[in-house]
Design a protein that fits this description.
The protein is α+β, with helices and mostly antiparallel strands and 385 residues long. The chain contains twelve helices and 18 strands. The protein has two domains: 306 residues, Fumarylacetoacetate hydrolase, domain 2 (Alpha-Beta Complex); 66 residues, no CATH class. Strands 1, 2, 3, 4, 5, 6, 7, 10, 11, 13 and 16 form an eleven-stranded mixed β-sheet that branches. Helix 4 packs antiparallel against helix 5 and helix 4 packs antiparallel against helix 7.
Length: 385
């Protein structure tokens, strides 16, 4: 696959977009909130110290940094991100104090794959046979169902009678979506970083997703791309292992920017977004896929409402992975064994309005430890005030 050019990191309509990034500054040894102007970054940290703060008044992003001095060029940041390290300027995940939440099983395609994981107890060698069985029984009957509807309840009753009911079907077509905490505050990685695959997983995959950025009042103020890296064998053994399957170092990748909603870029725009995925391995393996938001089973507003409300508030806002239609079945070795990551896989997630997020897989145990947390951020902001 050809190299991603710098211009392709940006949305196709970047000139009309309000884009916010977080950049690691090797001089001050900390994160800077930046506004993207053309192919340049304007440091707006003196006026808005965190992205969380900016999201409380998103209109502020329209004017902050206008006419300010260029701090870095896109070429500089991309180059530094490929090398990484605290001595290089590089992309960070473009959120900071927000909790990282996620909704699962929001598409019928991925719903069936979650049921497969469960019925295989995490054994990928059994997946093909179970997939054929379930697809013949469920495939056509679920796509038109409205989750939580009377029709969905009738299907549930039939499936229970056939011995096919599953906890994944409950959140897929039942009244309540799955909502879980994907990653701690400040643990996500940005464009160019390595994403971690723990050594205890032997069946895993990327999940290309739309990620909403929501403020403390429960209002979506922007969107970005995300890779909700998933360990299928771990979750397949038991849904109670979801935390172990979803939350390990560098298992949440976000970026490259938060695009702020405005009159020309709205929740309706991203509800129709086509998010593309490509994986290229050092072994020559290639795989592509698409996550079509138009096929999501629940409106994005419903997912936000299930996360934030009288039952749960987020004083610093939250980022919300909204699920994926894509679930890889292409064999990477023995026929019937399906796909799993190998170290060095290049994972590229892109969409017209959100740009391109690129990362490389690595063994989690070989990555630099996560050390920059909330206390470190507060100390940094106090020093650089």
């Amino acid at each position: 696959m050809e190299e991603i050019s710098v211009k392709n990191i940006l949305p196709v309509d970047a000139q009309e977009a309000t884009l916010v990034a977080r950049i690691w500054d090797p001089v001050s040894r900390g994160p800077r909130v930046c506004r993207v102007e053309g192919h340049s970054f304007i440091d707006i940290t003196p006026d808005c110290r965190t992205v969380s703060e900016l999201c409380e008044v998103p209109d502020q992003a329209l004017t902050l940094g206008l006419g300010g001095p260029i701090r870095w060029t896109l070429d500089e940041v991309v180059s530094g991100s490929k090398h990484g390290g605290i001595d290089q300027v590089h992309f960070l995940a473009p959120i900071d104090l927000q909790v990282v939440k996620a909704c699962g099983v929001t598409f019928v395609g991925s719903l069936i794959e979650r049921v497969i994981e469960e019925r295989c107890a995490g054994d990928s060698t059994k997946a093909e046979g179970v997939r054929d069985e379930l697809t013949s029984v469920l495939g056509g009957s679920l796509k038109a169902l409205k989750p939580g509807s009377h029709s969905a309840q009738k299907v549930k009753e039939v499936l229970i009678a056939q011995g096919l009911w599953s906890q994944y079907l409950e959140v897929g077509i039942g009244p309540d979506p799955e909502v879980f905490t994907k990653a701690p505050v400040l643990s996500s990685v940005g464009w160019g970083a390595e994403v971690g695959i723990p050594g205890f997983s032997h069946w895993n995959n990327p999940e290309p997703e739309l990620v909403l950025v929501v403020n403390s009042g429960g209002t979506p103020v922007g969107a970005m791309l995300g890779n909700d890296v998933n360990l299928r064998d771990v979750e397949g053994r038991s849904a109670l292992l979801l935390g172990k399957a979803k939350d390990n170092n560098a298992q949440s990748a976000l970026g490259p920017f938060v695009r702020i909603f405005d009159s020309s870029f709205t929740l309706g725009t991203v509800s129709e977004e086509e998010i593309r995925l490509s994986v290229t391995g050092l072994d020559g393996f290639e795989m592509t896929g698409t996550n079509s938001l138009s096929e999501i089973s629940r409106p994005l507003e419903e997912l936000v409402g299930a996360t934030w409300g009288v039952h749960h508030q987020y004083p610093d806002g939250f980022a919300l992975y909204t699920g994926t239609l894509f679930s890889p079945t292409k064999d990477r070795g023995v026929p019937g064994s399906g796909f799993t990551h190998k170290p060095g896989d290049r994972v590229v997630i892109s969409s017209p309005h959100l740009g391109c997020l690129e990362n490389t897989t690595a063994a989690t145990e070989t990555l630099e430890p996560w050390v920059f947390g909330i206390r470190e951020l507060m100390d940094y902001l106090a020093r650089s005030a």
